[in-house]
């Protein structure tokens, strides 16, 4: 979103806007919003002051207030293309997709030569599952700015979500030109691997994205090792206990900088493209990750003392990493699982990690709840626990991928427009046969989803 300022002859207002913008850039959002709110109250007819205050309210997460202020700026200055463009973004965040589309179309009509307007329109079409229209809009953005990485990445998401994997992988390569991808790949003059044979130990594999992505794309390591034996894998230490199960890996490094000599490199997320993956050819030899039998037995004995006999053991994960770009879409509050908690024949076993685990302190459900989160040391503990459950219920997070890679029966709840890998309009996934998908029927609306999950167990 661009917070550029329209020209003004009012120097005092201009200086005030500059001060607010400077505070925002310094990360002093509280101070910026406080100043913007005072300015908007003092200048209730100044559209850009209202707009700026609305954008800051949005950044703080106060979506209703952001919409109120943005709509006020739109009413005062309906022909400033920036305002409907940013309004569409906030409407999208609120799940008001009809309003998002109307304002995005307005912004594109007001600024037909603006690449951001067409890119934003493509994102709205993506959220509305209007994939062909989204591709048309993003292609206009790319025509205006051929090196526009965000537009190419949006094109990848549209294609991949629609199951057009062969085309989508090519656009997906633009992900490393996004600003947030800085530093994810080796700084080297070595080439990115093209799939041709390499001598033993001369290929560097880079675990380049989140834990879930690395688990998902780890299935391609045997394919890579068949062409470049004993590759080096650079990954975070927390993934090593899992991925060392793959005997094809020659050795591990904590980072690509510590990998030593190699002839070529490839991110794990680039392997599906090299392998020519389509929906029909996704490798699904499940399980490819297995729990340590001794750990499974230890957790089984422990759960036998914690869970009343005769109850189904249902694992639960309800929150992801707050830093994730789309965490607001996937994470839910523990209390939303009330229909599951009302079941008299189950026990809840939480395998949630992170700050949101504190929500168990407010649990008052009928089903007994066993909170294992504080006792989980790493992914090997989680994997062993999953094998002691009758089913896992989870949002779209790394534990869903872990369960899928291990063949554990799992119910995954998904937002209306999920990450591309879950595709659209299906309850199963070719990536993980043991997973069943439960989707929102409307954007930003979890009503009915948990009820369906609770009724299916």
In brief:
The chain has 457 residues and is of the alpha/beta class. Helices cover 44% and strands 9% of the residues.
Characterization of this structure:
With 457 residues, this protein is of the alpha/beta class. The chain has 3 domains: 11-180, Tetratricopeptide repeat domain (Serine Threonine Protein Phosphatase 5, Tetratricopeptide repeat), CATH 1.25.40; 203-281; 293-456, Rossmann fold. It is built from 20 helices and 10 strands. It has helices at residues 11-25, 29-42, 47-60, 63-76, 82-94, 97-110, 115-127, 131-144, 149-161, 165-172, 211-217, 221-225, 240-243, 271-274, 293-306, 327-330, 338-341, 379-386, 398-406, 449-456, and strands at 203-206, 232-234, 251-253, 264-267, 312-317, 346-350, 369-371, 391-394, 410-414, 435-439. The strands form 2 sheets. It has a 6-stranded parallel beta sheet with strand order 7-6-5-8-9-10, sandwiched between helices. A 4-stranded parallel beta sheet has the order 3-2-1-4, with no helix packed on it. Helix 3 packs antiparallel against helix 4. It starts with 10 loop residues before the first helix and ends with a helix. Mean pLDDT is 93; it is low at 1-11.
């Amino acid at each position: 979103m661009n917070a550029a300022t329209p020209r003004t002859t009012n120097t005092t207002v201009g200086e005030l806007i500059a001060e607010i913008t400077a505070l925002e850039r310094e990360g002093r959002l509280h101070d910026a919003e406080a100043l913007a709110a005072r300015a908007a109250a003092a200048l209730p007819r100044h559209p850009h002051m209202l707009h700026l205050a609305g954008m800051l309210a949005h950044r703080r997460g106060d979506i209703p207030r952001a919409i109120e202020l943005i709509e006020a700026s739109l009413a005062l200055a309906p022909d400033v293309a920036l305002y409907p463009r940013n309004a569409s973004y906030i409407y999208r965040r609120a799940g008001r997709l009809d309003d998002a589309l109307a304002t995005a179309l307005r912004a594109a009509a007001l600024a037909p030569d603006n690449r951001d307007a067409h890119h934003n329109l493509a994102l709205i079409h993506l959220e509305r599952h209007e994939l062909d229209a989204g591709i048309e809009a993003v292609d206009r953005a790319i025509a205006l700015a051929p090196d526009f990485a965000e537009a190419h990445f949006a094109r990848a998401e549209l294609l991949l979500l629609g199951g057009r994997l062969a085309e989508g992988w090519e656009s997906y390569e633009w992900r490393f030109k996004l600003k947030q991808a800085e530093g994810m790949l080796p700084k080297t003059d070595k080439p990115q691997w093209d799939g041709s044979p390499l001598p033993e130990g001369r290929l560097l594999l880079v675990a380049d994205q989140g834990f879930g992505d690395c688990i998902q794309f780890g299935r391609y390591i045997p394919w890579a090792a068949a062409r470049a034996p004993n590759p080096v894998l650079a990954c975070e230490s927390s993934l090593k206990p899992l991925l060392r199960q793959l005997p094809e890996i020659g050795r591990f490094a904590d980072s690509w900088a510590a990998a030593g000599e190699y002839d070529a490199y490839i991110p794990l997320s680039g392997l599906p493209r090299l392998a020519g993956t389509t929906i029909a050819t996704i490798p699904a030899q499940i399980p490819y990750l297995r729990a340590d039998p001794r750990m499974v037995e230890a957790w089984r004995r422990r759960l036998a003392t914690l869970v009343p006999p005769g109850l189904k053991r249902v694992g639960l994960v309800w929150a992801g990493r707050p830093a994730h770009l789309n965490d607001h879409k996937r994470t839910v509050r523990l209390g939303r699982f009330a229909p599951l908690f009302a079941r008299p024949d189950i026990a809840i076993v939480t395998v949630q990690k992170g700050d949101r685990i504190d929500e168990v302190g407010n649990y008052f459900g009928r089903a007994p709840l066993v909170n294992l989160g504080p006792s989980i040391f790493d992914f090997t503990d989680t994997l062993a626990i999953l094998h002691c459950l009758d089913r896992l219920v989870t949002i779209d997070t790394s534990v869903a991928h872990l369960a899928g890679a291990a063949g554990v029966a799992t119910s995954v709840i998904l937002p209306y427009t999920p990450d591309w890998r879950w595709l659209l309009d299906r309850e199963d996934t070719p990536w993980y046969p043991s997973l069943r998908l439960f989707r929102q029927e409307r954007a930003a609306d979890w009503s009915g989803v948990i009820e369906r999950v609770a009724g299916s167990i």
